[in-house]
Batch of 2 targets.
Target 1
Amino acid sequence: MANPLFDTLFGRHADSDAPFLHLGDGRTITYRAFVSMSGRYANALTARGLEAGDRVAAQIDKSAEALALYAACARAGLVFLPLNTAYTADEVGYFVSDSGAGLFVCDPRRADDMARVAAAAGSKLDTLGGDGAGTLADAAAAATDAFDPVPRSESDLAAFLYTSGTTGRSKGAMLSQGNLLSNSRTLAEAWAFTADDVLLHALPIFHTHGLFVATNVTLTAGGSMIFLPKFDLDQMLAHLSKATTLMGVPTFYTRMLSDPRFTRDAAAHMRLFVSGSAPLLAETHRAFTERTGHRILERYGMTETNMNTSNPYDGDRRPGTVGLPLPGVELRVMDNGSEVARGETGTIEVRGPNVFQGYWNMPEKTAEELSADGWFITGDLGTQSEDGYVTIVGRGKDLIISGGFNIYPKELELLLDDQPGVLESAVIGVPHPDFGESPVALLVAAPGEMPDLDAIRATIKRDLARFKHPAVIEVIDELPRNTMGKVQKNVLREQYKAVLQAS
Ligand code: AMP
């Protein structure tokens, strides 16, 4: 094929009048119209002087046009680089110059600020708003929709996604056409997607979950998406009746459960609920089943690797686990250079056609994390059961080492979450004058309740070895989370870093 990513996901549907996007305002965009739009945007991009392999950075609100920009990049052989809309001009400046983007597309409302960013990076600047208007939209409107896909192969780069970079510099993960295609084919099959599926899409499209998992899987199956600008509980409940599937981060599910309008009847017609990007509490999984009769399907992946494991579509979806390695993905749990026994904890490594091509401009970092024979060190700690189910224990960098002993925050968090009056918890390591580090436990109270900290301390004393006992247990209003629902432990560590120094 001339351009595998474009042909397989988009070009194949060029003559189809089936719906692709149902927008929040009631408009529907067919596949035919969407592919035409991608042609106009591809013409607009090449008219800016961009050539195959050039990077197009975009910090733009979610819209049909923003998605067409992704399709246009695939069609013109350009590397799409979507950026979190929350980033400040300074943060964006780093990504635009680091990637050497030939074009930076920003929100029209931020054009003045971003002109400085683009000039400093030597990039051209265009605008595209959430309403589909802007200088790039104008250029596309004036262009023809005919555009011959630029020849590419599966090994050519399709996208850069910068990692969220909670420690150190954010790294540009280079994803090839083959990386994206292999994963979308695998997932569409594993989750039984068909052209009849209607996916309720409320995720951002600057992240692997909303852009590649949700969108590419839908495109692979030829289904459609109800494309909402963001998660809004009222909107979700209003549109649910027209959907067959939902992909969300765990907070989607906890928020839906918090609303009495979300009933068994409201979810009865749904085929599948998928969760990922952050751990889904086993308790949420159970509460969801109790309320709706559906078992949420939890999967695990990351920017660098796309999706690695999934609970089965048919079969045992085990709460608290992320399921089995996906077909074609190899997974091993390692410690000190060798594989650990089943049930033991170690660092998760994966290998397969889904694994990225390395970090842009960082050969040393790439060599540290991606071995010559293709194994990627994920940085996640986990275990694998005798029958292959993977459980994530936490990020390696969240591991607490106290007086030479390893403490896995997840072990404490699971116990704390089970205590009366506790909604959720986060355990972090903070500097300790003698032990190097000590655990600090932060609890969020269940609505209208107050956890009994003395009782909790007594339970910990009874159930856990002394070196694991938190030096401090505190109730806080809420856990800091990023847009993908991940708890930002780095923020908590910073906040509590001196808590043991004074005593
Ligand atoms: P990102 O690159 O932003 O997608 O973040 C990837 C990280 O999110 C992984 O390395 C995991 O630490 C975490 N993650 C993703 N899915 C899950 C899951 N189902 N359970 C626990 N952690 C997850």
Note: The CA atoms of residues 482 and 488 lie 7 Å apart.
Target 2
Amino acid sequence: MQARCDLHLHSDASDGSVPPDQLAANLGHVHLAVLTDHDTLAGSAAFAKVVDSELPVPDGVEISLRWESGTFHLLVYGNSLARTELATRIDELAVARQNRNLELLDRANQYGLSITEEEVLAVAGTTDFQAKSVGRPHFARVLVDHGYAESIQDAFDRYLAKGRPLYSPKTLFGFDEIGPLCADLGLVAVVAHPFSLGLPLSSLASTLADYRRIGLVGLECLYAGYTPEQRTQLTQIARDLDLLVTGGSDYHGTFKPGLEPLKGFGDLVVPAEVGDRLLESLNRS
Ligand code: AMP
Ligand code: ZN
Ligand code: FE
Ligand code: FE
């Protein structure tokens, strides 16, 4: 079997369930794998140290940006990200995330769902909201443990998804701010799971064309959660707009059941050349 790539993985530094070093070890031999935790680089070094990869492993992060219908996710890849100006933005996001978690906790209790900060932190494997990128999946697990929901998905559908009673937005940056910063710093900015923008194909393409002018480099076409047809549609858009094709599983361990690293739901293949192109793009800048 040809070594594959996975450019979208979460560890317990954010809302995955597996520690970064163990996640890296579980992958086995790969062409390229990148850790992309939400709003944190905390797991990056531990992951890179252990992973058995044919290519040198860059840093990665997934950040939530402002969007009409809530947020969309941007994957950013780069070398030594922690030493760039983007790291300052990520720190600001971490503060916003902590405030948002406290707001979520308040809302839950006002709504009659008796959950505590300690329970959420225990699920996230930490002792304070600052140490890790704690998020809604951790709240979802606590709600399930209390019997307020049947599954993580049920907890989102009832309480945590946008428009539901516990939902609280984060203070966020827009792509107009982060895109040009990434371009300046030579970082590769990629729109994650692009259908989450909720746009039909033609408007998606025109939004992406606008973003490309201000720093967008790639599109996550080979996303585990998408059908082969959707992956083909996105690959066509990427080709038309001269965007880099990327892909990955969005593995979260037990927080997203059914997904495996590298394989997604079983039918994901992110070929070696996708990793090659990503590194070429990083090295060009
Ligand atoms: P947060 O960073 O706290 O906004 O949480 C983001 C995480 O929640 C992502 O990993 C998503 O997979 C998960 N998530 C967001 N919306 C939903 C939803 N409607 N159903 C299930 N999971 C979701
Ligand atoms: Zn996540
Ligand atoms: Fe995402
Ligand atoms: Fe993700």
Note: The chain has two domains: 5-90+171-284, 98-160.
